[in-house]
Every structure is written in structure tokens, then in C-alpha cells.
Amino acid sequence: MILRCISCITNVIFLLVTMSVSAFAGSGSFSSTYEMSGGLGSRQFEVGDGADVTVKITPSTGISGSDISITLYRRGWGNIEEGYAKVSSTSGGTVTFKDVPADDDYYVYLYCGTGRTIDGGIKVSWTK
Q1: How many domains does the chain have?
Q2: How far apart are alpha carbons 90 and 68 in whole angstroms?
Q3: What CA–CA distances, in Å, run from 4 to 9, 10, 15, 16?
Q4: Domain of 53?
Q5: Which of 21, 55, 111, 127 is least surrounded by CB atoms within 10 angstroms?
Q6: If you average pLDDT over residues 46-59, what whole number do you get?
Q7: Strand locations in 2-117, DSSP E?
Q8: Are 50 and 24 in contact (CB under 8 A)?
Q9: Tens of pLDDT along 4-39?
């Protein structure tokens, strides 16, 4: 009985270690919408060391002459800025942050400081 319990515990520990290692591997993506008159943060996502993170902005409503700032942050000891780019709030665009430096949780922060509401779609993807 004790040997069976030890075997079960060993299998569970192996599965947990395997799952946590594979969570950082490979690639992933998510899509969402944004509506903002200032700044807005995405959900967190796990990225492996050396991955490329791509952000695609597809505006529905923008403001001529205004940009959307896209900042990639890493969660660690606080929020660590790992990349920064801008796209037009009317035409959008795609930016890629290459070779992120650590296995960690990341999020994207969008900002348009006009005080007027803009909206559209966002897709975040990452590949290792």
C-alpha cells in the first residue's frame, strides 16, 4: 500500500514538472478587442526564453494623426519593459518583439493619449 502511494505521488510530481516545463515551450496566441480613451493592458501569457512576440492591431475607429503605443512588459520583480513600438490608430499594423530574454509571464500595454475613444481588434502571438 505504501509503495503504491509513493508511486502515485511520484507520477503526480512528474506530471506537474512536465506540464510546467511545456507551458513555456512552443507557441500560442490569443485575440481580443480593445476600446480605450487612454491605456489598456492585455491578459498575461507565458513565453519561453528566445521567443518572438508579435502584436497585430486592427482598428475599427481611430483618430487621424494619432498613434497607439504598444509596450511589451515582463512580469518579474515588477513590470519590466522588454519592447516598445507605435502603430497608427487609424490603419494599425503588426510589430514583432524578437528574442524575449526570459521564460516568464508577459503582457502587452496599449496607449493612445488623445482622451477620445478608439476601438478595434488585437491579436498577440508568440513562437519559439
Answers
A1: 1
A2: 9
A3: 9, 10, 17, 18
A4: 24-127
A5: 21
A6: 96
A7: 28-36, 39-41, 45-47, 52-61, 67-76, 78-88, 93-97, 104-111
A8: no
A9: 444 444 343 333 333 333 444 469 999 999 999 999
